[in-house]
Amino acid sequence: MAEVVFSGAGKVYPNGTRALSSFDLHVHEGEFMVFVGPSGCGKTTALRMTAGLEPITEGEIRIGDRVVNKLDPQERDVAMVFQNYALYPHMSVRDNIGFGLKMRKVPRAERTRRVEEISRILGLDEMLDRKPRQLSGGQRQRVAMGRAIVRDPAAFLMDEPLSNLDARLRVQMRAEISRIQREVGATTIYVTHDQVEAMTMGDRVAVLRKGHLQQVDEPQTLFDSPTNLFVASFIGSPEMNMLEAEVERAGDGIADELVEAHAGAGGTGPGRPRILPARHAWARAGLAQASRSRYSGCFAIHAEE
Ligand SMILES: Nc1ncnc2c1ncn2[C@@H]1O[C@H](COP(=O)(O)OP(=O)(O)OP(=O)(O)O)[C@@H](O)[C@H]1O
Ligand SMILES: [Mg+2]
Prior knowledge:
By secondary structure, the protein is an alpha/beta fold. The protein is built from 9 helices and 14 strands.
């Protein structure tokens, strides 16, 4: 287990596509960090650069006390779980989980001990002798995770590991992955484009857009104090209302006045901003920065000056 530190990390693919720009992020030891953002924003690229599957073209990535830029994937001591995890169909659950240890010539007794310990955490101990085809989708996904965790890597990298499970199973596996991560205590980077997944699983969430890190914070902070309109509109379900407004005056109580003004202005007619109870609105307003802090069901404005 180790920290993972990105310092000015950047990536330009050989065809000239820039996928990541001056990426600075400190993932603490044992932390569950989620990368979230729309398709193509660079999440997978950042993860593959960490794993050693893509060269780092700018800056550096450090895992523990080693800069890993020049290290081969197997020297980096990270384990990765992808969306399309391939289990060995002819091997039992036990052998699938223990395969990496066997390849590393870990003695049999130690191997058995590790596999049994991990299977217990994953709730797979009753099915160690089954083949993958005799398992449900969620159980197979857990075997894939077991195979990664059993090696006791410095960091655990997951790229949309739940995206090919059905909706119910996905919700269940989210909770399981969080539990397993806490129990094992492994430093984890988890990639998803699903903001609900990000907000429910991460200790902290890093929001990316077009290769740029927008904000990294605890879920509640992201929700309450989005740093810009992109984060504000990306985070939160249902989506936040956006209202154009001009700031003429700053100070306490302005949000109350605004809400009253809008309510007084006829409320929900066509073309009118609609202020929904229990939803949050974020006002974009000249120099003003908005937050959803105290005003549930309305909007608050803090002027920057
Ligand atoms: N091998 C490659 N060569 C050139 N460009 C690439 C390559 N792989 C990815 N890209 C580009 O880099 C950008 C980031 O891609 P990446 O796969 O990291 O996105 P992502 O955030 O994981 O998206 P998704 O949510 O769709 O998986 C995209 O514009 C993509 O088209
Ligand atoms: Mg991806």
